[in-house]
Amino acid sequence: MATFLYRLGRLAFRRRHFVALIWLALLTLAGVGAVSAPAAGNTSFSIPGTEAQKAFDLLEQRFPGASADGATARVVFKAPSGEKMTDAGNKATVEKTVEDLSRGSEVASVADPYTARAVSQDGTIAYASVRYKVSGMELEDSSRTALNEAAQQARDAGLTVEIGGDALQTAPQTGASEVIGIAVAAVVLVITFGSLLAAGLPLLTALVGVGIGVSTITALAHTLDLGSTTSILATMIGLAVGIDYALFIVSRYRAELAEGREREEAAGRAVGTAGSAVVFAGLTVVIALVGLSVVNIPMLTKMGLAAAGTVVIAVLIALTMIPALLGFAGRKVKPSGATGGLLRRGRPARQPDRPNMGTRWASFVVRRPVAVLLLGVLGLGAAAIPAASLELGLPDDGSQPVSTTQRRAYDLLSEGFGPGFNGPLMVVVDAKDSADPKASFTKVTEEIKGLKNVVTVTEAQPNKAGDTATVTVVPDSKPSSTATEDLVHAIRGAGGDIEAKTDAKVLVTGSTAMNIDVSQKLNDALLPYLALVVGLAFLLLIVVFRSVLVPLKAALGFLLSVLAALGAVVAVFQWGWLSGLMNVEETGPVMSMMPIFMVGVVFGLAMDYEVFLVTRMREAYVHGEKPGQAVVTGFRHCARVVTAAAVIMIAVFSGFIGSSESMVKMIGFGLAIAVFFDAFIVRMAIVPAVLALLGRRAWWLPGWLERALPDVDVEGTALHTEQPRHADPDERRELVQV
Fold first, then answer.
1. pLDDT at 90
2. How far apart (Å, rounded) are the C-alpha atoms in residues 252 and 239?
3. Cα separation of 58 and 50, whole Å?
4. Which of 225, 241, 259, 504 is the Cys-Cys partner for 431 at CB 3.0 to 4.6 Å?
């Protein structure tokens, strides 16, 4: 592989105009496609195989035209102090609001609070339910404007009015913090390279890659039913790996120049060596992201595939566009040790025989491996302790900031009707095979009324055919509580007995039941997914490192990182530690998909640093250095760059903490803290300590496995057999001068 990539790098360097033109054409094509593509419609959220999804599908079949997937809104009214909603003036205001809401062209129905018995017992709070013909993401702005204007008119009349439901749902915003993350990455690159031009190359190529990836996602969003979160994840991952991959190749290019090679040869060798690490690092990320499809949640599958596609683009750009741009830059990109003119102007370069910080740190770890190993493991173990209290759930309006009208509507409904009113359960009774459907409906209602934690059970509402009915159940607990989850399981358990007696099937659905089913499905898929992803990556790393113990150590280090990161997520988003700093206004259960998502993404990113750092150690070991010295050599060449890459990735992920979407905020924080733990504790401390303790045994591989594995030559051994092409006289004079 090293030889092929070496030739590819030299070809891209020579044919740089052609390569740049290809990527520019792809960016333009993707941009035109994104602009001309139809707007993305409703993003369907289906969970195949769950009871809640089966009930939802049955509703669409048996209740045609009911707009089961249409947007909903609850306009909540509260009377002024000392008044009631049944007072004549307040009642007239509400009825006028209901009349105004009914005029919308996209409105399917509006329920009057006074005829629908939607007034609290104390008479101070009432609500009007609005159902639309289209989903929340498909609603026209005019419909949202009409909804807000109707509410404002009621406010002007003296009532407190808030709006809940998904009718006000909009695409999540990441805010200026994302730009700050990119700015931090730019500063780190300038400090690392000491040159604006060299620092700009990774940023430019990463932005091109993300531009192509996100534009393609936007162009296909309507056709493939892709949500807004899909492009945000692709941006997050694409920026991080795009900058890092380009950073490693540019760094290796400067190192090759420092050894006296001419620029085309240096570009070829940089792509042949660091590029090999980029390919395998990218493969581990792709495996982790594509592996999300085994969970069988379409939304998660699409997010993973889209992000994986962006990673593939980042790898291809690093292997081709970076050497092409290095060709355009010419002598403006200096050899390593020559900081150019931006930093340390007029000062001599560091003496080559003076050990850098990476060398000094690695030497210390090699001398004290046991102490460093114990300190690192105990530190991560302490950070992982909160993960033992992990509670999972999916966000609802109760997790919104208190500044939003959705959250205030949620609180008003809880005040007037109880906490369970915000998460009613819909029970679907399929009596098509029952001899007496009406008796089946009555039986279901009576059974549910006898269960614990039930406040209200409505009468069964049959369809026109009379073979299916819906029953609304209001729990006595909030939607995200374990008591509500227990009630769902109790209803389903009672449904089994009812079916045995009446041949009527009982299914529980609704947003609360759907959330419970999603959490259960994710929990059930976690271990199989972990085994699949770690197993495939383990095999891949055996091929890369030609060792059994090094991949095993990499996998165990990853487990430490992800557990510590989950502990940090629990501490902030569930316990409320540093919640003010993170702008977390409401603590609660951790998002259900967070563990499996972190396992996938963090594993892929963690293996990036493993591959980049350890391949350089193996390269030194293969070329004759002793194991301990190989560890020091790897750090001498890679520690600075790995540190810069980790800081950049942390900055990019941290930029998404400012998102208005709680899921994006949590993902951004989780990935940022996971990269910190993995890069600076696992890879920079635990890894060299373990390799120092193992010595030559770290690179042990059974003979039969050695013969069976393909030789991918990540270390670039084949390149060392070729006659090196040294710099021309002008460039040699340049090297001497610096």
1. 92
2. 20
3. 12
4. 504
